[in-house]
């Protein structure tokens, strides 16, 4: 069980060095200052922000500059990636791996023995399979680079597209809770879990 990891295994979570990830159509890499304009343009969309916890709306150029700075300083998550198209280098969204926050809302510290993934895409790039391709890459990295037995993810109850991505990535429904969103307030979310054994059986990623 993840919660029963030995101290050495917990330390191993820090061994993810966040390599560039290359998939069939995408390259996941660290955010660059050159991405600022695209980040600001795609993130300044209530349909995106309302599905996330920490994205404000309106989303300005200053927000994008601060995001890139904090992402590269390691102040946001364990691994933060810009999602780009392999053929053109076009920025289309962001994703990442982070320590999972405690279910106890009174505890603001993340649990460093559990990991979760997250992602968002600009609306022009929805419905093309990019989110699923991204999720597969993150899942593979976590299970290959760490000893964790379970990986977590969540989505807004109303986010049908993200729910579909999680199911296609092998995640199973765990429970329902609430999330504080800067753009939408306190909203219901569904929490999902993927265990290592299931991942091994799905490594061909039949999409």
Q: How do the strands and helices of this protein lay out in sequence?
A:
Blueprint: H1 7-12, E1 21-22, E2 26-29, H2 36-43, H3 46-49, H4 61-72, E3 79-85, E4 91-101, E5 110-121, H5 130-145, E6 150-156, H6 160-168, E7 172-181, E8 185-195, H7 196-201
Parallel strand pairs: 5-6
Antiparallel strand pairs: 1-2, 2-3, 3-4, 4-5, 6-8, 7-8
Description:
This protein has helices at 7-12, 36-43, 46-49, 61-72, 130-145, 160-168, 196-201; strands at residues 21-22, 26-29, 79-85, 91-101, 110-121, 150-156, 172-181, 185-195. Strands 1-2-3-4-5-6-8-7 form an eight-stranded mixed beta sheet, with helices on both faces. The protein is globular and about 40 Å long. 29% of the residues lie in helices and 31% in strands. It is an alpha+beta fold and 207 residues long. Helix 2 crosses helix 4 (61-72). Strand 1 (21-22) and strand 2 form a beta hairpin.
Instruction: Bin the strand percentage.
Output: 25-35%
Percent in helix: 25-40%
Q: Helical region count? A: 7
Q: What topology, given as strand order, has the largest sheet?
A: 1-2-3-4-5-6-8-7
Biggest β-sheet description: 8 strands, mixed
- Please state the structural category: alpha+beta
Q: Residue ranges: pLDDT <50 for 5 or more in a row? A: 1-12
- Mean pLDDT figure: 88
How far from one another are the termini? Answer: 28 Å
Output the radius of gyration: 16 Å
Extended strand count: 8
List SSEs in N-to-C order.
HEEHHHEEEHEHEEH
Shape: globular
């Amino acid at each position: 069980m993840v919660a029963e990891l030995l101290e050495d295994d917990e330390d191993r979570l820090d061994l993810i060095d966040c390599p560039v990830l290359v998939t069939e159509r995408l390259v996941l890499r660290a955010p660059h200052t050159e991405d600022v304009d695209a980040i600001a343009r795609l993130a300044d969309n209530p349909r995106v922000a309302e599905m996330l916890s920490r994205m404000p709306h309106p989303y300005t150029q200053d927000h994008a500059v601060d995001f890139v700075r904090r992402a590269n300083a390691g102040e946001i998550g364990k691994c933060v990636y810009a999602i780009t198209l392999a053929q053109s280098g076009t920025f289309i969204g962001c994703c990442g791996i982070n320590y999972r926050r405690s279910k106890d809302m009174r505890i603001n510290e993340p649990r460093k023995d559990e990991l979760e993934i997250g992602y968002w895409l600009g609306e022009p790039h929805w419905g093309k399979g990019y989110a699923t391709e991204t999720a597969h890459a993150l899942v593979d990295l976590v299970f290959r680079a760490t000893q964790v037995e379970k990986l977590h993810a969540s989505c807004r109850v109303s986010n049908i597209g993200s729910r579909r991505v999680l199911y296609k990535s092998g995640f199973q429904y765990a429970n329902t809770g609430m999330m504080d969103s800067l753009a939408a307030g306190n909203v219901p979310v569904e929490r999902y879990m993927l265990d290592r054994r299931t991942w091994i059986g799905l490594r061909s990623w039949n999409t």
